[in-house]
Amino acid sequence: MFYGAMKLSIGGSLKLAFRPWVEGLENIPAEGPAILASNHLSFSDSFFLPAVLDRKVTFIAKQEYFTSPGVKGKLTAAFFKGVGQLPVDRSGARGAGEAAIKSGIEVLERGELFGIYPEGTRSPDGRLYRGKPGGLARVALATGAPVIPVAMIDTEKIQPPGKVIPKLMRPGIRIGKPLDFSRYHGMDGDRFILRSVTDEVMYEIMKLSGQEYVDIYATAAKRQIAEEAKRKAQEEKEAAGEEGEGTAAKRRRLRK
Fold first, then answer.
1. More confidently predicted of 25 and 166
2. Which has the closest alpha carbon to 120: 83, 147, 139, 93?
3. Are 149 and 117 in contact (CB under 8 A)?
4. Residue 195 and residue 191: Cα distance in Å, rounded?
5. φ/ψ of residue 134, rounded to 5
């Protein structure tokens, strides 16, 4: 009931303000479990997708959103619970992965929709990155639930990093046809199968989104971008220092 009220309030507001367009809603089953595997461009992805669906979809979120102290922390926790987010302890990489898989299986066993971002984190530059094989594929093979590829379009333009006020524009959502991986049932311990399943899903997401595909993990891309920014900052600092030294030498010559 609480979810329904929150969905009506938040979902209705999002649809009214941003008017997201949707293609492929008919690919969402009216009942029964299914995995929604989406690209990840923005923090708002987990809100826009549920807003356009009639059924509840559950995503996982970091535990800190649910345990922060004070009034603000309680309101944040209530908000995330209300929109169907599940807390996952991400303090350890392996532990976080196992917790996410367990949560996904439990949601699907209840006959509900489970949302997951195979890239594992938001894209740092709008491109589509290699999917991580552990979560998505293992949940799919453990439950036999169909995987529905989803492409979020332009959500990263609504609130780019560093921007507090969102830009009012129409994002898009394309929902693909369900993918059946029942042929791999019982093979969730085979890393080659997990990789194959993940790559097939990422290929479908790429076709739906039209994004450029990059065959590295988004986490690695973020490290590269951070290192490049650090290198440029150091070069600019050194250049400014050399320029300062040159100016000081000029002044000394003029005084002579």
1. 25
2. 93
3. no
4. 6
5. -65, -55
